[in-house]
Structures are given as structure tokens and as C-alpha cells.
From TrEMBL, chain A:
It comes from the Bacteria. The chain crosses the membrane at residues 96-117, 363-387, 408-436, 456-479, 500-523, 743-764, 784-806, 826-845. One of its GO terms (molecular function) is transmembrane transporter activity. It comes from Pseudochryseolinea flava. It is found in: Cell membrane. This is ABC transporter permease. It is a multi-pass membrane protein. The keyword Transmembrane helix applies.
TrEMBL record, chain B:
The lineage of its organism: Bacteria, Pseudomonadati, Bacteroidota, Cytophagia, Cytophagales. Residues 21-89 form the Transcription regulator PadR N-terminal domain. Signal peptide: none annotated. This is PadR family transcriptional regulator. InterPro entries: Tscrpt_reg_PadR_N, WH-like_DNA-bd_sf, WH_DNA-bd_sf. It comes from Pseudochryseolinea flava. Pfam families: PadR.
């Protein structure tokens, strides 16, 4: 009989599953016989098909297995299960608490992470036209690497609207900072110049006013926050606000609309909107037809999203126009980024109006959630296995009465799901009232639980079933295996011999080890980051932002007489506040992107940035107007063995390197130091005045600066501060992440030790009689302690040997991901982590030893 | 007679089992019925009838020989019980009685 003439297998499996066992042999035989008859009569294919068909026709009530053997309703049975579950929970309140609480915390964190991920996923997805909106971006070659930029040449938007039928709307966008004045309120604000199409393309409904008013050059539209800031709760439509573009140009605008509060999951937003044409009033030199200049963003809306590819292929003519006008920004190709995936891609697009602040959260948070739920599940598994010893008799009785293994499994899994459900309810409450408000308060992400969204309930249901099953399946399979007779004979010694139980306990300790190590290392890293040198001296330094040279001169004159002033410097940019991107052209005609600071000759000495090679700028030197000072990283990246004298093209002028300064942090420690150049500033370019003052006079001088400013410019608010504060937001975010990691670590340590505690406690109480006998026979504290500790020693050793390297690698990877300059990791973190874990273990075990020692052996022997 | 509900198909199956004697197992019963009735029957319909008849006490069964063609699975040979025999006889008598009255009835019908 060859293989092909065998009947198909799958119908057989179906039949074996559904049809009563006593009929199987006969039916299989009959079917096979018919099958062979069929082969002789029809093709093999037909025969097989007939065979399957016959099997399916076999599925009749008369022949099917009885899947519900009890004709009585199973309800009382389940009621009994609930009752026993509840009783066993109440009987061991501590174990129940550890289980429920541990799971609840883990579930709460999972829910928090889910809410965060959901929030992140929804960002900017509320715009009705989101599928048709694209941001114009382009690629440029930087030393062989294609970088994507999120801004576009100024004339691009206008021309594209004329050239392409497929484009429905174009919106150009410029961001500027201005001073806004309404009656006595004067603030520095950022304002968006947009085409009136902005409000048609994007879904920002207005609370008051009409969107079309943006066509009017004198209209201004406010966000809700800004409306409240200037006008309180009243309707400001029709009020007049003055926008001070700079100290020469100001213009009165009429409030024409106020937007509704923005949806919480958003990235694109605005404070103030005015018609795009106003940019020409604010900046008379602004030339819309200048291909060598860029605007902050150009957004297009198409009639059909699918047209984008055909448009992209026809962008070549703009590329030529652009590349002829601006040799430093050679565009390789244009690309239109869809709004739907903008947020996820934002990290790859440079200088776009869209941002992605959540990248680290998107990676880190699910890891944390997974960790927590794993820890809780392992706690549960270990405790469940041990606590089953107390319920052996119940299982025995059930089996004797007639429960088969399936029944016991169903019973315990149900019980498990019920416990998980309790935990879920508690976890939900924990998340909604503790975790989430805390998280929102310190991250500033406006997360909220979407009660109305069905996905969250599906997520909870899945979480319930998965957690319930995962944590329960092994204990249940294990418990249900026991034979009733052995249970009653008392010959069952379990738990300690089972290798899987040991593995679980080991995994639990490894997890605990990782968590504790991570917690220690994060705290260490935080200290490290706080103490890290910036590469220049931040203390005793002040700065003030000035609008122009006149203001600089006036302030300079006012402040110079103070004896506490050690040195004053003027600059276009300032470390920590402002810098520019410059594109250098090497002698090999390659383009290099660098950070640029335009400063005067006093800058390095004021900030105390050491010059390591060459010289500083010279005052009033015509030659030095073509000189560059660069940082060490630049020299290293460009591979210049003799940097002095090397020339670079910048804006079609040749510059020569005259000096090299030490690397310093122009940004926070999350970001790597960038190759940086300094150019000598013309006095007309000055926008910052910075000064180094005598030790201890910082506060006084700050007040002096402020007073002089108020006298000189009563209409413009003072913008200045301590140099130490420029990275305020950075320290804020380091503090945040420290706080977050700290709390998470504390919770994890608590979960881990709770789990261990529950385990040891159950183990000891399960051996009460043994210890009582030992005591009556004269065992002393040493013997008892050894007996208890003994069984954990080897396990702990193994766990530590595995846990230490794993936790080392894990925390290192995590740090490397977060920080550009992570703390160089030694073994001290792991070592402290290990010691802490051992300490926790010892503390847990010693409480139990104490309990055993205190207990009266007579009472212990009476225990059943 | 009241309590024994014997369906038309069940009656046929029962008769075939009786007729086949020692050869009465699933495939043979199916084959015989198909030739007699001149239609295709599914294994399921015959088997469920057989099981029902067995439950009602019309049939007994036991395992018979196994053959290579059956993949080494044993046949189940069905035998009709005395009770079934009696019931079938009763049914036959009732039918015969009824047939006797047929011609008169058809004359009457014609007359109308």
C-alpha cells in the first residue's frame, strides 16, 4: 500500500476528537474500507474528498461525545469553587495580599504603560485631513550620509500650488519670537505666521470667532491657553493686542478667534496665529522669492493622498533652482512626509516643526511593564505551588468524589482568574488614582485613561486572561497531577524536589537581582550626571538677551562700572541658549554640518573655555573676520593633524582656523557634543551680553541687570538669567527620570521581596511539625537556622551568578540608550545590588527563623 | 406496539441487518441498502440509525474480524434481537392487514 492511497489525516483527527470513543474503531475501519473501494472506482483525489465529506457527515448528535456530562446546571459547582477560593484567600490573608497586591501593582503599571503607548500612538491623528497632509522635506548629502531636513526653500510652496493640479492647499509656516502686549501685560511669546489655509487643513476648531478671519492681515488667533493668560475667562474677540516684532516695528492686531483646548495627544499646536504676509512687516528683508533662504515649514494637502509619488517625481526643477541659488545646501531629493506617520518619524527629520519626545519612553516603558508583570507572575507561581500543599486534602477529596484531572484544572484556573480579576480591579484603581496622576504631574504628558475606548477594555481582558493563565497554568498542572491515594497516605513530599520549582525560584531571584542592580546604578548615574563637567564654568555667570547693538551698548555702559563685574562679552549666540547650524565646504568640496557660535574676542575667557592650540580672536582685527576657532571634536572628526591654517568655505567666503578650544557641552548630556566652530561677531550682530562676576555677587548683579533693563526698556520684559539655570529643563528631566526610575525600582524591589517573603513564610509554616519535633529533641538556633537557610543557599548562589552579569549588561544597555555620555559602569553597582539582595533575603529568612524559635513546639505539633 | 417508535429508515436498516445475518457490519449494510434503495447513503446516517436501534434494544453487536483493507480495525457485527424480530413481524402483519383493505378503498375512491 503506497503512501498516496492512505486516507487524509485531518478528518481522522476531527473524528477522534468529536466522536464517542467506543465507536471510533468501527467507524475508522468502515471509512477506510469504503475509501479503498472508492479508490478502485474513482480517482484518488475524489476518494480522499469523499472520505473527508463522509467524516463531516458523521458529526451527528447520536455519535458525538458528550462534552457536558452533567445534565444538571454547573452553576452550583462554580459557586462552590468561588466559595472555596474565597475561603482559602481569607484563610491566608498575607499570601492573598502578596498575590493580589503584587499582581495589582504590576497590572497598574501595565495599564499606565498602555495608556502612554495609546497616547503616543494618537499624537496628531485627530486631524480630519491627516491622510492627505504632507510636510515638504528634503535630503542633503553630509559627508556621504543622507540627512533629512524638515524645512523647505521659501518659494517652494507658492510655486508648487501653481504647478500642480493635485494640490488642494498649501500652507507656509514661519515661527518667530516676539513680544506681545495687552494693556499692562507684556510677555515674550512665540508666534506662528501661517497661510489662512492652516485652519482648513488642520482640525483646530475655534471656540470663538471664525477661521476665515485669518485672511485678514490684522487678525490674530489665540490658543485657549493664551486667551486665558491675557484675558481670563472672557471672550476676547474684538480686543486689540500689540505685537512688538522688534524695538522699531510693532503692529496692532485684533483678536479674531480663540481655538478650543487642543486634544491632549498632539504635537503640532500654536500659541498665536497671524497671516503669513505679516512676516514681511516684521522683517522687511524677508524675500519670498529667495531660493537661498528657507521657511520653517511648508505643508501641503492633496486631493488624493496617492498623488504624492507622482509629485515627488516632478520635483527635479525645484531642485535645480534651489541648488543654483544655494550651493551650501545642495538638495539631493525632495520627499513629502505624511502626517499620519509624522510623529513616529520625527526623530529622523532634522529641524522640523514636528518633534518626538517619546522615543525613550516608547522603548523603555514596555520593558518596565514586562518586567513588572513577569516579577508578579513568578511570585504568584512560586507561592501558588507552595500554598497548594495546604490544599492537598481538598484536591484529594475532590478527586475521590469524582472530579477528574480536568475538573481540578478548571477549578484552580477559575480561582486564578478570579484572583487576577481582583488584582485587575485593584490595579485599575491604583493606576487611575495613584500612578497616572503621579506620572502626569511629573512628566507633563497629559495622559488620561480612555474609559470610553473599547480597546482599553479589550486590553484589560487580554491582560486578565494572559496573566491569569500564565501565572496559573504551571501550578495547576502540577497540583492536579497528584493522586488522591498518595495525598491521603501523606507520602507526598513535593515542592522541594521538583526541578521546575527551583528554576522558577531562581528566575524570580534573577529578576529581583536585575531590578535592584538597575535601581542602584540609576541612582549612581544620576550623581554622575549631576557632577559632570560642562567643559566651561557655569557658576558666577550671568547673561541677558538684547535685541540689538544699541541695547547692548546701553547695557554694557550701565553695567561696566560695577566692581564685581570681572569680564563682559557680547555674542550673537550663547551656549545653552542659542546656536546655529552652518555648512562648511572643505577643500575637497565636501559639505560638513557643524554647530556655529558667533562671538566676540572675550567669549572664551568669560566662559572659561580653555584654548588648547593656536590663539583666541583678536579685537578689531580685519584679518580675524575670516578666522575660525574650532573645538577638539571638529579637529578629530575632520582628521586634521595640523588644524591651524586649514581653510574652509562658509557662505562663499574662505575662513582659516586660528585656534582650537577644548570640547564643552553646548547642549544637555542627553545629546552628544557636536563639532563646533566659532566666528568673530560684528558688533551689530550682538544678541547676548554675558558677564562673569565675582564669587558671591551673582544675586546682586542679577538684580542690577534687571533694574537697568527696566529703566531702559520698560515695554520689553527682561530676558536673562544665571548661566547655571540654562540647562534647567535638562536637570528637570534628569530629575524626572531619576524619580521615575526610583519609584519603579522601589516597586520592583518591594514586589521581589514580598514574593520571597511569602515563599519563605509558606515553606516554613508548611514544616511546623518538623521544626517542633526538632525543637523538642533539642535543636538550637543554629540547627534551625541552618535547616531553613540550607535549601536556599545553592539556589541563591546560582541566581546571583546568573543575575550579576545579566543585570550588568541590562543596565548598561539601558543607560547607553538614554544618555549620550553614560556613566562608565564599574562593578560597584552590581556589587551593591547583590549585597542588597542578599540582605533582603537574610532579612526575610531571619523573620521566619525568629518565628520558629518563638513558637511553642506543643502548639506546633497539634497543627494538622 | 405503542412504545416502540420505529422510523421508516430504521425499519429498513433493521431488515437489512436481519437479511445479512452474520455479514451485517457497517459497510455491508450500507452497500446492501444502497443497492436495494438505489440511492447513495452516508456512513453517518446509517451509523446513527444503527446506534439508535441498539439503544432501543433492537440490535446487539460485537466486534468481528479485522482485515488489511480496514487498516487493521475490527468490524462490528450487528445481530437483530428476538424483540426486533417480533416488532418487525408485528409491523408486517399490520401492513398486510392494511393491504387487504386496499382494493375496496380504491373502488370507493373510483366511485366518487
Amino acid at each position: 500500500m503506497n503512501r498516496i492511497s492512505k486516507p487524509p489525516q485531518w478528518p481522522l483527527r476531527v473524528m477522534r476528537f468529536f466522536v464517542k470513543e467506543q465507536y471510533i474503531e468501527e467507524l475508522e475501519g468502515d471509512l477506510e474500507e469504503i475509501f479503498h473501494d472508492d479508490i478502485e472506482r474513482y480517482t484518488i483525489h475524489r476518494a480522499r474528498w469523499r472520505y473527508s465529506w463522509q467524516v463531516l457527515k458523521l458529526l451527528r448528535p447520536m455519535l458525538l461525545k458528550n462534552f457536558n456530562p452533567q445534565s444538571v446546571t454547573p452553576l452550583p459547582m462554580f459557586r462552590n469553587y468561588f466559595k472555596t477560593s474565597f475561603r482559602s484567600l481569607v484563610k491566608n490573608p498575607l499570601t492573598a495580599f502578596i498575590n493580589v497586591f503584587g499582581l495589582a501593582v504590576a497590572i497598574g503599571i501595565c495599564l499606565l504603560v498602555y495608556t502612554f503607548m495609546e497616547y503616543d500612538k494618537r499624537i496628531d491623528q485627530f486631524h480630519v485631513n491627516k491622510d492627505e497632509i504632507f510636510l515638504a522635506t528634503f535630503f542633503a548629502d553630509r559627508e556621504g550620509e543622507m540627512l533629512q531636513y524638515g524645512f523647505a526653500p521659501r518659494p517652494l510652496g507658492d510655486l508648487m500650488k501653481e504647478d500642480f493640479q493635485q494640490i488642494k492647499h498649501v500652507c507656509r509656516l514661519e515661527d518667530r519670537s516676539v513680544v506681545i502686549k495687552y494693556e499692562e501685560n507684556v510677555f515674550h511669546e512665540s508666534i506662528r505666521y501661517v497661510d489662512p489655509t492652516f485652519l482648513q487643513m488642520f482640525t483646530f476648531p475655534l471656540k470663538w470667532g471664525v477661521p476665515s478671519s485669518l485672511n485678514d492681515l490684522n487678525s490674530i488667533i489665540l490658543s485657549e491657553t493664551m486667551s486665558v493668560k491675557y484675558f481670563g475667562d472672557e471672550n476676547p474677540v474684538g480686543r486689540e493686542m500689540t505685537v512688538i516684532f522688534n524695538d522699531q516695528v510693532k503692529k496692532a492686531f485684533v483678536v479674531a478667534g480663540v481655538a478650543n483646548a487642543f486634544p491632549k495627544s498632539r504635537d503640532l499646536e500654536f500659541n498665536f496665529l497671524v497671516n503669513f504676509k505679516n512676516i514681511e512687516i516684521a522683517d522687511p528683508s524677508y524675500d519670498l522669492n529667495d531660493w537661498s533662504e528657507f521657511s520653517n515649514a511648508t505643508l501641503v494637502q492633496l486631493h488624493h493622498a496617492s498623488d504624492v509619488t507622482s509629485i515627488e517625481t516632478q520635483m527635479a526643477k525645484y531642485k535645480t533652482l534651489q541648488n543654483d541659488a544655494q550651493p551650501d545646501w545642495q538638495v539631493a531629493s525632495f520627499k513629502f512626509e505624511p502626517l499620519t506617520t509624522m510623529h513616529a518619524r520625527a526623530a529622523n527629520i532634522r529641524d522640523a516643526i514636528f518633534h518626538d519626545y517619546n522615543l525613550e519612553g516608547r522603548i523603555g516603558m514596555p520593558i518596565i511593564a514586562l518586567f513588572m508583570i513577569m516579577l508578579a507572575c513568578f511570585n504568584y507561581i512560586n507561592i501558588a505551588i507552595v500554598s497548594a500543599s495546604k490544599r492537598l486534602k481538598e484536591i484529594g477529596v475532590r478527586k475521590v468524589i469524582g472530579a477528574n484531572r480536568m475538573r481540578v484544572i478548571v477549578q484552580f484556573l477559575t480561582e486564578n482568574v478570579v484572583v487576577t480579576f481582583f488584582a485587575l480591579v485593584v490595579g485599575f484603581i491604583l493606576c487611575a488614582f495613584i500612578f497616572l496622576p503621579w506620572f502626569v504631574q511629573f512628566t507633563g504628558w497629559e495622559l488620561e485613561l480612555q474609559y470610553l475606548d473599547k480597546n482599553i477594555w479589550i486590553f484589560l481582558l487580554v491582560l486578565l486572561l494572559v496573566t491569569g493563565m500564565v501565572s496559573g497554568i504551571y501550578p495547576v498542572l502540577y497540583i492536579s497531577k497528584f493522586e488522591a491515594v498518595k495525598i491521603f497516605k501523606g507520602s507526598l513530599r513535593f515542592g522541594r524536589k521538583n526541578p521546575l520549582t527551583k528554576i522558577f525560584l531562581c528566575i524570580q531571584m534573577v529578576l529581583a537581582c536585575i531590578t535592584i542592580t538597575a535601581a542602584v546604578v540609576f541612582v549612581q548615574n544620576n550623581d554622575f550626571q549631576n557632577d559632570r563637567s560642562w567643559g566651561y564654568q557655569q557658576d558666577n555667570m550671568l547673561f541677558v538677551s538684547v535685541p540689538d547693538k544699541t541695547a547692548y551698548d546701553k547695557m554694557n555702559a550701565a553695567i561696566t562700572p560695577y566692581k564685581d563685574v570681572e569680564r563682559i562679552t557680547g555674542s550673537r549666540h550663547h551656549v545653552g541658549k542659542d546656536n546655529a547650524i552652518a555648512v562648511l565646504k572643505t577643500e575637497m568640496n565636501q559639505h560638513v554640518e557643524v554647530t556655529q557660535f558667533v562671538v566676540d574676542e572675550n567669549y572664551f575667557e568669560t566662559l572659561k573655555i580653555p584654548v588648547v592650540e593656536g590663539r583666541n580672536f583678536r579685537k578689531n582685527s580685519e584679518n580675524d573676520k575670516r578666522a575660525l576657532v574650532v573645538n577638539e571634536l571638529f579637529v578629530k572628526n575632520m582628521n586634521l593633524p595640523k588644524p591651524l591654517g586649514v581653510t574652509f568655505g562658509l557662505d562663499s567666503v574662505q575662513y582659516e582656523i586660528v585656534g582650537v578650544v577644548k570640547d564643552f557641552h553646548a547642549n544637555d548630556f542627553f545629546r552628544a557634543i557636536e563639532p563646533t566652530i566659532f566666528r568673530l561677531a560684528d558688533e551689530n550682530e550682538f544678541r547676548y551680553l554675558s558677564l562673569r562676576v565675582a564669587e558671591g555677587s551673582e544675586k546682586e548683579m542679577y538684580q542690577a541687570l534687571q533694574t537697568h533693563w527696566m529703566k531702559l526698556y520698560p515695554e520689553i520684559p527682561f530676558q536673562g538669567g544665571y548661566q547655571e539655570d540654562v540647562m534647567g529643563s535638562y536637570f528637570n528631566s534628569v530629575d524626572k527620570s531619576e524619580q521615575f526610575n526610583g519609584v519603579i525600582a522601589a516597586i520592583a524591589i518591594m514586589l521581589a521581596s514580598l514574593g520571597l517573603y511569602g515563599l519563605v513564610r509558606l515553606n516554613v509554616s508548611g514544616r511546623t511539625r518538623e521544626f517542633s519535633i526538632r525543637k523538642t529533641l533539642g535543636a538550637n538556633i543554629k540547627n534551625i537556622a541552618w535547616v531553613i537557610v540550607n535549601q536556599y543557599v545553592v539556589l541563591t548562589m546560582i541566581a546571583l551568578v546568573i543575575g550579576a552579569p545579566v543585570s550588568y549588561l541590562f543596565t548598561k544597555a539601558y543607560l547607553d540608550m538614554l544618555f549620550a555620555y553614560p556613566m562608565p559602569m564599574g562593578i560597584s553597582g552590581s556589587l551593591i545590588g547583590l549585597l542588597l539582595l542578599v540582605f533582603v533575603l537574610l532579612a526575610v529568612v531571619s523573620t521566619q527563623i525568629k518565628k520558629v524559635l518563638k513558637a511553642n513546639p506543643v502548639e506546633g505539633l497539634k497543627v494538622d | 406496539m405503542k412504545k416502540t417508535k420505529l422510523g421508516e429508515f430504521e425499519e429498513l436498516v433493521l431488515l437489512v441487518v436481519g437479511a445479512l445475518g452474520e455479514e451485517a457490519y457497517g459497510v455491508e449494510i450500507k452497500r446492501e441498502l444502497e443497492t436495494r434503495l438505489d440511492e447513495t447513503l452516508s456512513v453517518g446516517s446509517i451509523q446513527s440509525a444503527l446506534k439508535r436501534l441498539e439503544e432501543k434494544g433492537f440490535l446487539t453487536s460485537e466486534f468481528g474480524e479485522a482485515t488489511q483493507k480496514r487498516g487493521g480495525k475490527r468490524k462490528r457485527i450487528y445481530t437483530i434481537t428476538a424483540y426486533a424480530h417480533r416488532t418487525l413481524a408485528e409491523l408486517k402483519a399490520i401492513r398486510a392487514d392494511l393491504w387487504k383493505s386496499m382494493p375496496k378503498l380504491s373502488h370507493a375512491l373510483k366511485a366518487i
